[in-house]
Amino acid sequence: MSQDTWNYLFIGASFALYIAIALRTRAATTKEYYVASGGVSPFANGMATAADWMSAATFISMAGSIAASGYDASRFLMGWTGGFVLLTTLIVPYLRKFNKFTVTDFLGDRFYSDIARAVGVMCAIFICMTYIMGQMRGVGLVFSRLFDISITMGVLIGAGIVFFYAGIGGMKGITYTQVAQYCVMVFAYTIPAVFISMLLTGNVFPQVGLVGDFVKDGATPVPLLDKLNQLNTDLGFSNYTDGSLSKIDMFCITAALMCGTAGLPHVIVRFFTVKSVRSVRTSACWTLAFIAVIYLTAPAIGAFVRTNLMTEVNGTAYVDAPQWLKNWEDRGLIAWADKNEDGKIQYSGSGPVFESSEKAWQQRSEGTTLSPDFVFSGKPVYFEGDSDDGPRRLKNVLSANDNEFYYEKDILVMANPEMANLPPWVIALVMAGCVAAALSTAAGLLLVLSTSISHDLLKKIIAPKISDRTEVLSARIASFCFLAIAAYFGINPPSEFVAKTVAFAFGLAASSFFPTILMGIFSKRINREGAIAGMVAGVGLTLSYIIYFQFYADHKNYWLGISPEGIGFVGMLVNFAVAFAISSVTPPPPQEVVEMVERIRTPQDVGSATH
To answer: Residues near 31 by Cβ (< 8 Å), separated by ≥ 6?
Structure first.
């Protein structure tokens, strides 16, 4: 069978499975729609939570980031994994005991204020909308490659599928769909890694291959990482195992990812679907086990991709370039510019790299228009250098060095089996896994967005007397509206790298929900004034910083060297500081709120909680 036939077979079968599950588990009540009636088994919930968490950023971009930047990408592994430990030990057991539908329910009741609830709704929208944009972009990339269509059309198709099974099934449908999606993802991630590990290192386990010897095509055995470092330095790149980020930025990004993970509303709400607090802890153990399968494989995949890319591309005559390169080039996600006109692909990191803003370019060029050197990832690319029209310098100039080969980082995992010349069915399986990763998280995010409007805003604040049927209908309408917005930004993303866009969402969660929930559980003194002021200050600083440096700043003159991806950690500290300061000069919470905190924190038949 041809590659296209395999692709259609795997993707079609997975879609049919998802839709069948959604139709069979259609939600009829608000409790089924929001928390699947609270009756999901710990094993199934652990698998569904793993699928919900392992988004397109994890499946597509994390290994791509490791391949492109090596050591620096370890911030994703450390941050996301460490954050889940915080989540399962400090937050979800207590929130499950609170026994409500949403995170914002907790904020509204704990801080005895509809204003706190409304601020929570706004924070949830900011977080989930930023996150879901990355998922829609990932769906578009996969569909573009699969069906030879534009990324725009791919995003629209993916959005339609997500709306169908998330809007109809609610949490009940999403849960069992995500179980199926995890199974697809884990096979799609590990099977190609096993194949490639055997080809490059002779080891069947990718994790062993990462620290093993490079022996491809009978080469003299040499440690794979040493081989990779040598390839990098020979071509003008820094050592693969060295980092380029400053220590403070690396620390802040990792901390923001960690605390942001613990504050993600779509992950927290997954633990509301099990029967008891004991089930929460059991489910968390299963989730960590399921996540470990992929997270322990990602570094190996990243190293394998980088090795294949540097050995298969550099110095190759373009006419003899492998077919996978031309397939992705046809979709504008790989580009080659023959600068020295020798007909060969030069992949190099030597020479200066220059970046400046489009706004500054427009000011310098005084309205003149230049023809781009080529188009990459849907955007014109200009090389640095003087011309009759002025200096050719644009925000999206990729480099001013001798490099001739450019690629979208998000395609590396998808292109990896093609680089290694694996069987067509393996390539098709990877594509199905990429789609499953993006769709699973998008569905969970969409549920949080819709319930924020229908339950937290409409039911709890605006119209408390609406019926269950009207509430569920409102949730489905909200789903459609939010998905339309997410699709637009998936087509026109604020960052071309999916993992970077998603990192912004973690920063927003770290600066808003995580500290507020933590203080709400473990401090009886934090009151509504402090919580509201802390959330507004934390998320306001983080969002303003991200918007300024992502859309307006001409230079990366970051405050203290902290990038927008790491500013969420600073926003979190501001949230804590403002909340405690305001609470110390305003009246303490009512006695019934203090008693509620004690009930949440204290097991039955045990003395009162302290502080």
So the answer is: 37, 38, 101
